Amino acid sequence: MEKLTVENVSYTYQGKYQKVQALKNVSCTFEKQKFYAIVGHSGSGKTTLLSMLAGLGIPTEGTVYVDGKDLKEAGTERHRRENVSVIYQAFNLFPALTVLENVMYPMQIVHKQKKDAAKRAKVLLDSVRINETQYKKFPAMLSGGEQQRVAIARALASNAKVILADEPTGNLDTENGRIVIDILKQLVCEESYCVIVVTHDLGIAAQADIVYRMTDGKLKMEELSKFVSALHPQTCNAQKAAQK
To answer: In terms of CB atoms within 10 Å, which of 43, 53, 58, 100 comes out highest?
Structure first.
């Protein structure tokens, strides 16, 4: 998959007392070999947009295109199986499966031989710094950072080239959060993945190629310099002083 495009997408749902318009005429394009960050307050529509990109929801208005083809025509189930993988803040690993079995699962549901699935799962786990002493452990026996890295390995198991990450560092400490983002950036740089991260962390946004801000269901592109300034005011001030 080369390109994922959202064109004039709006999404409305029935709330408890009234209809809520979660997305308002959103248009944007996501391409391979780029790292995107989507920032915004809670309830602004960020996760709803990820759901549209994943084919988990159908726009009330507008269209999502996969390489120029309407996602509804291409098939949302096939899209989720072949094009996109989702990483969640809460990890969402299967508690009754071991680390190795969790990563094997996406391959086995498409009938990959168990031996081959296990071999590839070990390669993927190694790539996210999970060693063989942890293969037979259950998720509850791992730290939060380890669980999220297993979740990344599972996302890679389907060979989908678009990673949708919803607050992937939200439950992690600073060091484990850094490791997770480094792994995602490596996928972009070395394997041409498209990574789209929803985050409140300005430090993550500052590392992205492109940053979008969601406000009350509306999306706009932001200048990266805004996030760098927020993170490193002294550095930016020093640069300004040097230019005088």
So the answer is: 53
